[in-house]
Amino acid sequence: MVFCMQVDTVDLFKVLSDPTRRAIFERLTREGEQTVHALTDRFAVTQPAISKHLALLKLANLVTDRREGRETHYKAQPKALAPLVDWVSLYGAFWRERMDRLESLLERMEP
Amino acid sequence: MIEQARTTMEQSAATRSVVIERELPHAPEKVWRALTESSLIAEWLMANDFQLAVGHRFSFRAAPVPGWNGIIECEVQVVEPYARLAYSWGTMGMENAVTWTLTATEGGTHLRMEQSGFGADQEANYKGATYGWKRFIGNLEQVVGGLD
After folding, report:
1. Which residues in A lie closer than 8 A to residue B45 (C-beta atoms)?
2. Digit-coded pLDDT (tens) for A28-70
3. Alpha helices (runs of H) in chain A, residue ranges in sequence order
């Protein structure tokens, strides 16, 4: 069975809106690749629940997995977050607002 | 007073930058003061300990929000009185450069601001230890929510 799903920014938000999934992603980002077992030990959640979280993170391209023997290892892909942060747009809005303030200050200043 | 405001944003894939330009009905000397006197900068940009000297390190301080300490570390790089001012702009693991260019016009000053250095590598730098993911994502939702 082949899943062909488009994950857009909104879905990224949805995937990361769950605190446990965020915590799993954060841990993988900070500590590197880990197995499902290792993650299950760290979180007070059952292994099927962890696996479900990981499947959703994988669907959003936030983690990749790799089979080794009987274990599956998961690795964070922080670059998948890039669509969430468009720094150029954010700073564009920031500077436009500040330039408006600069203009009003100039109006108030002595010549 | 007739005010002409022109705002443009330029983006290119290789070295993305934010460019904002405005026509101001004020002399370059006056605009320069607003850009270079600490107390005046604080009125329109952010609290700061700016000094007009190449090599001076200073910071801008905004109210901290979850995921961001509100501090921008800077260093004055270029001072050409009434014409050009540039400083580095470092925050959230990213290092940008902000350059102000003033050109005298018939009616006042053409002011150009360029914030450069948004390379693909730079934007990936925000990952990792310098940043609190949980808070970051929470804050981001607020930011994006406020963009509409």
Report:
1. 98, 101-102
2. 887 889 999 999 988 888 999 999 999 999 988 889 999 998 8
3. 9-16, 19-31, 36-42, 47-59, 87-108
Contact B34, B40 (CB under 8 A): yes
ipTM of predicted assembly, 2 dp: 0.76
Phi-psi sector, B119: left (phi>0), alpha (psi -120 to 50), beta: beta
Q: Where are the domains of chain B?
A: 16-145
Tokens 């564009």, residue located: A92
Cα distances (Å, whole numbers) of residue A37 to A15, A61, A66, B10, B123: 21, 21, 14, 48, 32
Q: B119-144 in b/e burial notation, b at 16+ Cβ within 10 A?
A: eeebbeebbeeebebeebbbebeeeb
CA-wise closest residue to A8 among A91, A77, A82: A82
- CATH superfamily label, B16-145: START domain (3.30.530.20)
CATH class of A9-81: mainly alpha
Write down the domain spans for chain A. Answer: 9-81
**Which residue among B18, B44, B128 sits closest to A102, beta carbon to beta carbon?**
B44
Query: Does B40 contact A109 at a Cβ distance shorter than 8 Å?
Result: yes
Inter-chain touch B18–A22, beta carbons under 8 Å: no
- pLDDT per residue rounded down to tens, chain B (148 residues): 333 333 334 443 345 788 999 999 999 999 999 999 999 999 999 999 999 999 999 999 987 765 567 889 999 999 999 999 999 998 877 788 999 999 999 999 999 999 988 765 665 554 433 344 444 444 444 444 444 3
Numbers of helices and strands, H then E, in chain B: 4, 7
Per-residue confidence (pLDDT) for residue B65, from 0 to 100:
64
**End-to-end alpha carbon distance in chain A:** 73
